[in-house]
Design a protein that fits this description.
Two copies of one chain form a homodimer. Chain A is mainly alpha-helical. Helices cover 69% and strands 0% of the residues of chain A. Chain A is built from nine helices and no strands. In chain A, helix 1 (3-32) crosses helix 2 (39-46), helix 3 (60-82) crosses helix 5 (109-115) and helix 7 runs antiparallel to helix 8. The A-B interface holds A 33, 35-36, 118-119, 121-122, 151, 153-154, 156-157, 159-165, 167-168, 171, 181-182, 185-186, 188-195, 209, 211-212 and B 33, 35-36, 118-119, 121-122, 151, 153-154, 156-157, 159-165, 167-168, 171, 181-182, 185-186, 188-195, 197, 211-212. Chain A binds a DNA duplex (30 and 30 nucleotides) through helix 1.
DNA sequence: TCGAACTGCCTAACATAGTTAGGAGAATGC
DNA sequence: GCATTCTCCTAACTATGTTAGGCAGTTCGA
């Protein structure tokens, strides 16, 4: 009986169309920004009439949702790849995490905007799409814990700082390298203040900045 | 000759209508969010037909622009009032600045969203409306300088951190008091790392936190 | 004071969004 | 082979910001 095989083929074709629509949406997001995405343009790109898109997505927001899930899943994978193996020096690890986060956002500002879903009016990710974002955050807490940062507040502060730095970079100096300089200094400050324990780092004590 | 007096009266009436429109816009922004503002609703509130609004504003974005300018002017005044006189203890001053910033944003999230103009698709403030924002930033640099923070990077990091903390608060814990706790810890970290000099603070030495 | 110019509002209409209704034709399944 | 399902279509609807053009009251100069 070929029923199951056929069913598979159908599902695949359906999935392919879905991906085609999402790819068109991504291309458009990168050209004109996330808010500039238009069902008509997406439809034209994939060779459909706008209402036909509704055979694949419930609404425009559902398309955003799929893109949101895409992004966080990709980011999760990206982080996993970069953090294996984890650097042994805490300060290096912290910088690496920041660098990954930064590269990921600067490489594709549209994606970054989408991942900060609050910047898109009317869009709220579904619980399912939100899950990878939560997992990444948990992974962060875990990683910091392994490096000796057990105070949750310190982690939250670090995340805030990182988000703020990236926003400032994208807003004031897109294409420049302001982020690197600020990150360098911020990491030092954080380390000096005990945010990053010196546990495995012998060199850190010799590097401590003199107080005026 | 009454010409000039008449001209004044006309200008006043015109300004009053303009204010009425902006008030309606603000009310609506607080009810349904900045993105939810609708010319039709504004017009209904002030008792006009939508196209009539164009006698007072060039476009919807022009209304946003006026609201943006309003906000930053109010903030500038707010800051000036709170920082006069400037606390003598640097750490207190830093916390006060953060507190003012936070109160101002939490008291009126719609206003905060507007001040972060990048969160509103298609809106870019005019140079004139942007000026107060620049002045406030300069004022911040100046104030920090008077407190002994001469490294511009340290100031930028502080601003990033503050923005990140507020965003995190508004996103994860609206109505809660997460911000206070994180701010406390962040200020300490910053001070310990030398971001806040102990220069003018004699009491500071007695208050210095013990390092574990 | 009279007529011209201006001002502030109006109605009608338009362009562009997202979205719904309903159907036609091909693919699929018993 | 026939009923069902699926995918796409056209037509139309609603809501948005915006433009065109006009009309009545007000202001202002000769």
């Amino acid at each position: 009986m070929l029923g199951s095989s056929n069913r598979n083929r159908i599902a695949e074709r359906r999935e392919a169309t879905r991906r085609e629509i999402l790819d068109a949406a991504w291309r458009q997001a990168r050209e004109v920004g996330v808010a500039g995405i238009t069902l008509r343009d997406i439809a034209r790109t994939v060779g459909m009439q706008p209402p036909s898109l509704y055979s694949h997505f419930d609404s425009k927001l559902a398309i955003y949702d799929a893109m949101y899930a895409d992004s966080w899943l990709a980011y999760e994978e990206h982080v996993s790849r970069e953090l294996d193996p984890l650097p042994t020096h805490p300060r290096d690890a912290i910088r690496l995490i920041a660098r990954v986060f930064f590269d990921f956002s600067v490489a594709d500002p549209a994606r970054y905007q989408l991942m900060n879903h609050r910047t898109i009016p009317g869009f709220e990710p579904t619980a399912e799409s939100y899950a990878p974002a939560v997992r990444v955050l948990e992974r962060g807490v875990e990683t910091f814990g392994a490096l000796g940062v057990t105070d949750r507040a310190d982690f939250d502060i670090w995340v805030s700082l990182l988000g703020g730095l990236i926003d400032q970079q994208l807003a004031n100096d897109p294409g420049g390298d302001r982020f690197s300089r600020l990150l360098e200094r911020a990491t030092d400050m954080w380390a000096d203040a005990g945010g990053i324990p010196h546990r495995t780092a012998r060199r850190a004590s010799t590097k401590r900045r003199a107080r005026p």
